[in-house]
Amino acid sequence: MTLSEEEQKILDYWDSISIIKLILEAEKPLGRYQFTEGPPTANGLPGIHHVYSRSIKDIILRFKFMEGYWVPRKAGWDTHGLPVELEIEKELGFKTKKDILDYGIDKFNEKCRESVFRYIKEWEKLTERMAFWLDMENPYITYENDYIESIWWSLKQIFDRDFLYLGKKVVPFCPRCETPLSSHEISLGYENITETSIYITFKLLDPNYKDVKIVAWTTTPWTLLSNVAIAANPDGRYSLVEYNGEKLIIATTLLDTVLGEGNYKKIREFFGSDLLYKKYEPLFPYFEHLSEENGYVVITADFVNTEPTSDNISTGFVHIAPAFGEDDYNIGQEFGLPF
Fold first, then answer.
1. Which of the chain's termini has less CB crowding within 10 Å, N or C?
2. Where is the Aminoacyl-tRNA synthetase class Ia domain (predicted)?
């Protein structure tokens, strides 16, 4: 008997004794250990990565069951989100949101509902074959009213306990779909591209750095209007140099990359933390008043890279615009930068 045949024999035995039913009905002394399956989208085929993640989940569930916990293994199906909608858009040949509106939102939603369980047999087969024991007969389905109402109920409980607050968050936005995107949805179409970048200088206003400019590098020059800070690596080493009659500050390890070997004269070296809270002149005059609100200041951040790599042509400084980019917003909150 082959290994595959031996596995199938064991699976058949578990099925004959209704193993999942036995697990769900078992009396366990330590009480409940709740598990709700992070639901897959069944309008797409399962992949090997689902086997990896489910194997890790299953190890925990079996361990907690053997410890003496009752472990309800609630299955689920994700029937919302862009993956479902994009699949139907492709089928119907739609290119824009207007196509959906012309077709009819109700008709489009119905098409989506029809598609969400397209590959449910393949998902059930995978689940059974890898012995990932789930209560597949009583799954939660995200488009059903019971589930939707449970989300509203949960939000109401959070609100009543004063755990909700109004804040801001930078999120990716799709101009074609006219909607914010989750990190998962971004990954569906993520690709590396070559982008035009620029170097730009910021003149320091500190008397100890008279006529000295910080050199920053960016691939998003359209965000410079919203610049309110420059980030340096606190532990990185930076050099003040003379170059073409100007005094510039650049990360020491990146001097040759940016200015060219032998094209500059080094004056002195220091750490990025030595520049903390140094003020600089705004690039544009429109928001000069923000200088009085902790704007146009050098801050420090660990995510700033000062090491040379094959694709790193930065200067060791990052221009910060809290309204553009998650890192910018988070560091802006940390340092109390204007938004």
1. N
2. 10-193
Angle at 148 between CA 142 and CA 153, to 5 degrees: 140
Is 193 a member of any domain?
A: no
Query: Do 265 and 207 fall within a single domain?
Result: yes
Backbone angles phi, psi at 202, to 5 degrees: -120, 120
Output b/e per residue, 295-331; b: 16+ Cβ within 10 A.
Answer: bbbbbbbeebbbeeeeeeebbbbbbbbbebbebbbeb
155 and 202 assigned to the same domain: no
Distance CA 220, CA 233 (A): 20
**Token couple for 323:** 């309204």
Residue-number span of the structural domain to which 75 is assigned:
3-79+116-160
Residues 6 or more apart in contact with residue 200 via CB below 8 angstroms: 215, 216, 217, 218, 221, 224, 283, 319
Q: What is the CATH number of the domain that holds 204?
A: 3.90.740.10
Q: What's the CATH code of the domain at 135?
A: 3.40.50.620
Q: List per-residue pLDDT tens for the chain, 339 residues long.
A: 898 889 999 999 999 999 999 988 888 889 999 888 888 888 888 999 999 999 999 999 999 999 999 998 999 998 887 878 888 999 999 988 899 999 999 999 999 988 888 889 999 999 999 999 999 999 999 999 999 999 999 999 999 999 999 888 888 888 888 888 887 778 777 788 887 889 999 999 999 999 999 999 898 899 999 999 999 999 999 999 999 999 999 999 999 989 998 899 999 999 999 999 999 999 998 988 998 889 999 999 999 988 887 666 789 999 999 988 888 999 999 999 998
The CA distance from 249 to 39, in Å, is 51
d(CA 204, CA 281): 6
- Residue 62 to residue 46: CA distance in whole angstroms: 23
Global pTM reads 0.70
* 247-262 core/surface letters (b: 16 or more CB in 10 A; e: else): bbbbbbbbbebbbeee
